[in-house]
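Journal club side-thread
Mid-discussion, someone asked how the predicted structure for our own chain would compare to the paper's figures. Pasting it here so we can look after the session.
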Amino acid sequence: MRKILSVFLSVFLLSLSAFAKEITIDKRTLNYSEDTLKFSENNKDLSLDDIKKIFPGYEIILISDFDKNRKYTMKNSLFKTRKMLLLNDRKRTFHGFEIYPLTSRDKEYGIKSLITVFGKKNVRLKHPGGDEFEIVVK
């Protein structure tokens, strides 16, 4: 029974890494996991400082920055756009989550957690089952 459980666990862990998207930025090959909202390079998670250097024009929001109602409040002017990078610093996974509205999704790299906030429009990281995180713009 232990051998079967061990094999199942190994296959499960390998399958999680199969969901990572490989991207090249500044001649660096990075892996991005849409399920964990994390970046890695050479099978090692990147530090927050490394990510800030890779995406200098983006504000970083951590999942722990959201309140108990899963809301993050920010200010933005009506005509300003802000680029944000949502990163997971918890053990939670985000399989099946998508960014809404569609216009806020990243088009350059296809990375789920790279978002653009337009004016006073709220942005949601939403699961079809109803679970969601919301960036509330005031």
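Post-session note: The radius of gyration is 16 Å.
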